[in-house]
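tl;dr need the bound structure. longer version: we got a ligand (adenosine-5'-diphosphate) that a collaborator sent over and nobodys looked at where it sits. i said id run it. heres the input, straight from their email, havent touched it
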Amino acid sequence: MSNIESPQNNDSIDVAFPILHGPMGEDGTVQGFLKLANIPFVGSSVLGSAVGMDKDVMKRLLRDSGIPIGKFLTFTDETEPLGFSKVVNLLGVPFFVKPANMGSSVGVGKVYDETTYQAAIELAFKFDLKIIIEEFIDGREIECSILGNRNPIASVIGEIKPRHDFYSYEAKYIDENGAELEIPARIPDVVADKAREIAIRTFKVLSAEGLGRVDMFLRQNGEVVVNEINTIPGFTKISMYPKLWEATGITYAELIDRLIQLALERFGREKKLRTSYL
Ligand SMILES: Nc1ncnc2c1ncn2[C@@H]1O[C@H](COP(=O)(O)OP(=O)(O)O)[C@@H](O)[C@H]1O
Ligand SMILES: [Mg+2]
């Protein structure tokens, strides 16, 4: 229930398409602002955006639903991170240190020893008051695009082949040849089907809506492990999200039409809800 009266209609804007990455764009803040302004918008609402942004909360929900993820530890500015050898005992080595709320590999470090550990912790805490430490998953990086609200559909699977130690900020944005995309990924059909099914479950469990790209690791033994969801995936014409749809048979223009339809459909459904008891 809220006492705030949203404007009944906002004639100048039909639908907003937030294509913003990271905190204050992808984490529910802009989505909350659009809700208050009574403007339909593409993609996840406040909850799905916030959950998808926070790697700690996201992983707890996935773990709770039995979706396969790697082992992880969470620390805040109030809980001193464990020493290097204790982390190694729990997670093995190497391992990853990340700010809980970020993206684009900003603040992400791969740790091999005590020195890189201290540097990685300091770096991650520069971006968030909460950090997570994850076991290293030795696998190929595969991705699946999801589209829909209540009955979301999954695209063909794509693979990212980073030419760096991992898919770092440099590999993503600075080095032109930092990574190769393979669409569709050269993996057996049964594995692709399993990854698609896990990606749809991930999307639903995390309350995502409209669109999302689910990033996974594929271990050599065929096991699929979820890394994360991106509720506002890269959306240029050469980005993985639209390219996976293109390969599945949905063109860029049609994809945008469908996303707008989904935004309006969700808006219409929510508009029917009462916001006060009286
Ligand atoms: N647990 C892990 N095991 C192996 N590689 C990882 C792991 N976590 C992250 N990476 C590597 O780091 C990259 C960025 O990490 P990710 O969690 O996806 O952060 P972001 O949200 O910034 O994209 C991944 O694409 C992958 O290359
Ligand atoms: Mg990522």
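gonna send this back to them w/ a short note. DSSP finds nine helices and nine strands in the chain.
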